[in-house]
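Morning!

This is the sequence you dropped in the shared folder:
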Amino acid sequence: MKIAECQDLLTRTLSATYVSAPKGTHFYRIAAQILEMARAYESDGIRFFQTGDPVNALASYYYGFGWLHFGVSSGLLNIPCPAACPFKGPAEVLHIRHRSKLEEKTTRYARLLDIARSSVKCSMDPATTSSVFARRMLCIAGTYARRGEYLVNAGDPEGALASFSYGHGWLDAAVTAGFFCIVAERDLFTI
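The structure's back. Tokens below.
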């Protein structure tokens, strides 16, 4: 998917997204924060793209999608249509002038996602359904970490960066929602 198409998809999806929880409740505040963060990453991506930085735009859009999809999966957010998938088809191949920045950021984001995954522990009692959901969030982050590694080895740094960013977005949103306690590297999370 081209970066501009990804931005358009995220913008259209966010404009249709709404908070599911009743106003004034604790869950409403969490949901509103998650939606606000997804919109902030969309806004960052637009700014990066407009200033000629497609590498950071790509990372921002997919990070925003991670936040958004966490919100929908958790039931905190709702979208009247099926959740949009930014992974339809390969990521846009960026111009050679962006190659060095792309490779550096992809390598760094792979490392950061691995560190982030090992920096959290479930904050729920293991017998609760919330604990099951938290383990699922770790599984999703791990799946996108492995997908990113596969794409690095396949020579697709754009797809790898998208995967690492998306997986970290899921994990960051889950931390913000209270499913995890941060046990190390607090600076890797938005809270």
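Headline: The mean pLDDT is 96.

More detail when I'm at my desk.
O.
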